[in-house]
């Protein structure tokens, strides 16, 4: 759960944080203050501040996802985001008295944040490059394991076994080692392209080319997946119904920005396949927009309301997002029975039990695993 800490339970901090808590029930909001009387009043039936509707908002959220506390350091330490709204009165003595702002409260809050939280201080360019490198390194890891998946298929290795072995090396660790149809999302490609641009602007062509390869391998992986589908299905998907299960770039989101499903679907449509697309959260309108469908393509695509409808009468299934519900579909009695034979499954997220599906009768391709 994302945690927000608001320092200063005054006129600004109290109401602002209360409304954040109301509007974002999945976020935990702590409002902290050094003033015990203010905090105890926020925790009473007699709020220290009046604003129309404020009492209702506080009564609705307090104790659920809105907390008032004097334990400033604890909440700052635990928070993902810290807002500061402490008082900044006019100085009453010393330099600028009567005019300048007294920043003593602000400075004391800032120093406390620096002491208890894990703020990393860098120069401007380090901050910029750290942000880009963070996403570039994650994307690079995915492209690395995806590149390995191609080699696994060629040699007879299993990429999940290779990732498992790698994950045991504490210097490598277990995260971001799942081979798939490719990475998506709004950030990875954008940030790598930005990095490439900065490298080129600084004349670092070799470095730029190095990072470009991360994107190229990702494109290669998507293209390889399409090629696998077409070649497996007797070198033609023309006029064949293919069920596309999942369109979002990852599970539990409706976000389709840079989703690999766009390239895979366009690749299959280019080979004249008929697609029946189902995603639990992505709207038909969004899918049509993403596939920038011309009137001829519209005839080739239908967006349907569940996985059974999508797979009914299909020659093949492509799993393109790792939604949990795709694991519990009744592949044996419903899906297989209602599909054309031979029935193909192309698992682009490696979420299904390949041996079980093969036992049912499916011809199964999963990324980085030898074909049967
Ligand atoms: N943008 C606007 O429209 C707007 C309007 C009003 C105020 N402000 C600004 O917002 C800030 C807060 O204003 P306010 O009216 O809420 O002030 P306030 O005096 O009502 O509340 C500030 C609170 O901060 C607490 N505080 C001070 N130092 C602290 C610390 N180190 N740790 C924890 N708590 C601390 C005080 O005890 C006080 O309760 C000020 O800088 C003010 O200028 C902005």
From TrEMBL:
Key words of the record: NAD, Oxidoreductase
Binding positions for NAD(+) per the UniProt entry: 190, 257
GO biological process: glycosaminoglycan biosynthetic process; polysaccharide biosynthetic process; UDP-glucuronate biosynthetic process
Catalytic activity: UDP-alpha-D-glucose + 2 NAD(+) + H2O = UDP-alpha-D-glucuronate + 2 NADH + 3 H(+)
Domain of life: Eukaryota
Recorded coiled-coil stretches: none
Keyword NAD found: yes
Amino-acid positions noted as binding substrate in the UniProt annotation, renumbered to this chain: 131, 176-180, 184, 250
Keyword NAD applies: yes
SMART domains registered for this protein in UniProt: UDPG_MGDP_dh_C (SM00984)
Pfam families: UDPG_MGDP_dh (PF00984), UDPG_MGDP_dh_C (PF03720), UDPG_MGDP_dh_N (PF03721)
Active site: 187
GO CC, alphabetical: nucleus
Family according to the record: Belongs to the UDP-glucose/GDP-mannose dehydrogenase family.
PANTHER family: UDP-GLUCOSE 6-DEHYDROGENASE (PTHR11374:SF3), UDP-GLUCOSE DEHYDROGENASE/UDP-MANNAC DEHYDROGENASE (PTHR11374)
Name of the featured protein: UDP-glucose 6-dehydrogenase
């Amino acid at each position: 759960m994302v945690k927000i800490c608001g320092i200063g339970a005054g006129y600004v901090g109290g109401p602002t944080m209360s409304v954040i808590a109301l509007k974002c029930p999945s976020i935990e909001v702590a409002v902290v203050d050094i003033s015990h009387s203010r905090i105890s009043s926020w925790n009473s039936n007699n709020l220290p501040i009046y604003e129309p509707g404020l009492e209702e908002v506080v009564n609705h959220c307090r104790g659920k996802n809105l907390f008032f506390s004097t334990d400033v350091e604890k909440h700052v330490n635990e928070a993902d985001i810290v807002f500061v709204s402490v008082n900044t009165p006019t100085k009453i003595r010393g330099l600028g008295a009567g005019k300048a702002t007294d920043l003593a409260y602000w400075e004391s809050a800032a120093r406390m944040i620096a002491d208890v939280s894990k703020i990393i201080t860098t120069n401007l360019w380090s901050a910029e490059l750290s942000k880009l490198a963070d996403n570039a390194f994650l994307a690079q890891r995915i492209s690395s394991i995806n590149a390995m998946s191609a080699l696994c298929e060629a040699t007879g290795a299993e990429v999940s076994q290779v990732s498992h072995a790698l994950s045991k090396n504490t210097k490598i660790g277990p995260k971001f080692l799942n081979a798939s149809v490719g990475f998506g999302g709004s950030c990875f490609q954008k940030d790598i392209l930005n990095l490439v641009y900065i490298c080129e602007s600084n004349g670092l062509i070799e470095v730029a080319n190095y990072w470009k390869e991360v994107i190229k391998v990702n494109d290669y992986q998507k293209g390889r997946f399409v090629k696998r589908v077409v070649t497996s299905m007797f070198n033609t998907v023309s006029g064949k119904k293919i069920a596309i299960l999942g369109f979002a770039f990852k599970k539990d989101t409706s976000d389709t920005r840079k989703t690999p499903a766009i390239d895979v679907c366009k690749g299959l449509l280019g080979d004249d396949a008929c697609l029946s697309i189902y995603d639990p959260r992505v709207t038909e309108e969004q899918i049509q927009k993403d596939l920038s469908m011309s009137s001829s393509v519209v005839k080739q695509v239908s967006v349907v309301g569940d996985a059974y409808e999508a797979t009914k009468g299909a020659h093949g299934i492509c799993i393109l997002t790792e939604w949990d519900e795709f694991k519990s579909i009744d592949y044996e009695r419903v899906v297989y029975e209602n599909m054309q034979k031979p029935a193909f499954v192309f698992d682009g997220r490696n979420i299904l039990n390949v041996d079980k599906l093969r036992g049912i009768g499916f011809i199964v391709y999963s990324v980085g695993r030898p074909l049967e």
